[in-house]
């Protein structure tokens, strides 16, 4: 059976499914290559099933607030997403694809964008520019370098399920460890070796980081104790000197 015949069968089955769904749920309509539906809150969502049949300009005209492109075999984020004014889009789902890299976090034509789901892809690194999306899900990818997480430090981000390597003695690990309360990142799970089972950073590195920080803490404690004594000693010397004169 040729690929053309298989594609025709797929389109026919999809058409039958859409007719059936439309008969049961009249609020669901096939538009712009996607199944669009109106939710209870009045927002419009689009579930796209065939990437080759998508019309992003058409979707922009529908004022879509939720766009679901999950599981459609994407290997990269389509340029058409930024070339089309999806100005009403708030939630973008790109999960369960094969996306291995991002050029940037800049979805410049989507001023209302609140969340992007990139979970269950093949990301090995993140862009160098800080992420300004309120929430991003990059869980269950292939991120290994903790340096790549710096761009997510001020973002609500789900990073679980990545084999991130914990080099406990490195400055970046100590930074994340000591500033955990300031970060919006969910708990960082990492491994000491590639064959390890991921554990929270606070568990993996607490012994080494605390050990490295102890001398510094003792030093400052000694300074705080000695400095007032030295000041009092100096004041006493000056007072005695004046008395002797």
Describe the structure.
With 245 residues, the chain is of the alpha/beta class. 34% of the residues lie in helices and 15% in strands. The protein is built from 6 helices and 11 strands. It has an 8-stranded mixed β-sheet with strand order 1-2-3-4-5-6-7-8, covered by helices on one side. It has a 3-stranded mixed β-sheet with strand order 9-10-11. It is elongated, with a radius of gyration of 28 Å. The N and C termini lie far apart (113 Å). The model is unreliable at 21-26 (pLDDT under 50).
Task: List key phrases describing it.
elongated; 245 residues; 8-stranded mixed beta sheet; 3-stranded mixed beta sheet; 2 domains; 6 helices; Leucine-rich repeat, LRR (right-handed beta-alpha superhelix); alpha/beta
